Amino acid sequence: MTTPDYPLLTMGSYEIYQLAHIATYIAERLARHRASGRGREGRMARAGAVRDLAAAATALDAAVGATVPTSVGQLPRPLDMAAYSAARELISSGPRSADVVSMAGVGGQGWAVVGQVPGIGPVGAAVGTRKLADALRVHMLTRPAAELTPWAVNDERVTVPTLPRQVDLAAFVEHLDPDQADDRAIARALRGVNRRTDAAIRGRFRGIDLDAPPIVQPPAPAQPTASAPVPRPTRPAARSAPRRSTRRLGIQKPAAAPTVPNTSAGP
After folding, report:
1. What confidence score (pLDDT) does residue 220 get?
2. Which end of the chain has less neighbouring CB within 10 Å, N or C?
3. 218, 151, 85, 87 alpha-carbon torsion, rounded to 10°
């Protein structure tokens, strides 16, 4: 892993990656909630985001073994610029970085993950526990930049909407994408919640090993391609001027004049 997208040679444990994927899922749904428009479609988008957030919060509690539900204020969310700047002053970092810092140093609560990713810029997360902060730190240091866009720092403070106490988890599972690592982490954490949800997970993720370790492959370096030989310019063959026809419309060539012999035959 030598490219800027993969700066670390080591990866975190499987459990750490599961937590980070679930947290990233939550951040992405918060972004959907903020980006929803007005009207009926906007209300539907917000309702779907709230449903997904409630289910993901349940998955997060199951993954960390929480005995009481995590409060809305403690759910992971992107940092706002003010919190990012305050946390940034407490640390120093390199071109691509991610550091964990307690917000108690500036009178806040919880933990902040503060980083910098080329192509995205400042990234950061506000979380309630050090364990989740450590998971996101490794996540930000090892995952491709395209997967970290939900953690881009926002100009304004990100608030989590009010979530329902209960959500139909089996119906929620039907909206998960088996091809996405974040969605697989959600499904893995929700196993064992109830039989109906387990049945939905088995059907939705049929043939997929949810316990398989994550595989991260750095992009292959571009292979130099041999330049094709430049074809030599060829001069088009010169064409001879077309011969003009001696016949013109309505004009005939006169017949040859009769010749007079040099000798005459006498009588």
Report:
1. 52
2. C
3. -80
**pLDDT at residue 8 in the model:** 46
Closest CA to 158 of 169, 147, 150: 150
Express each pLDDT in 60-119 by its tens digit.
999 988 888 888 888 999 999 888 887 776 654 456 889 999 998 888 889 999 998 888
| Average pLDDT over the chain, rounded to an integer | 80
Task: Tell me the C-alpha distance between 248 and 253, whole Å.
Answer: 9
Q: For 221-229, what is the mean pLDDT? A: 50
Contacts of 87 (CB under 8 A, 6+ apart): 79, 101, 103, 106, 112, 114, 124
pTM here is 0.57
Question: 3-state class of 163 per DSSP?
Answer: coil
- List 99's β-bridge partners, or say none: 114
180-190 in b/e burial notation, b at 16+ Cβ within 10 A?
ebbbbbbbbbb
Q: What does each C-alpha distance from 109 to 58, 79, 167, 255 come to in angstroms?
A: 22, 13, 28, 118
Tokens matching residue 97: 């970085």
Helix ranges (DSSP H) in the chain: 14-35, 39-64, 81-88, 130-142, 169-173, 181-190, 195-204
Q: What is the DSSP string of 13-76?
A: -HHHHHHHHHHHHHHHHHHHHHH--SHHHHHHHHHHHHHHHHHHHHHHHHHHT-SSPPPGGGS-
Q: Which residue has the higher pLDDT, 221 or 187?
A: 187
The strand pairing partners of 129, in sequence order, are none
Q: Residue holding tokens 């929480």?
A: 66
* Ramachandran angles phi, psi of 122, nearest 5°: -65, 135
Angstrom distances, CA of residue 264 to CA of 7, 56, 256, 257, 258: 117, 129, 22, 19, 15
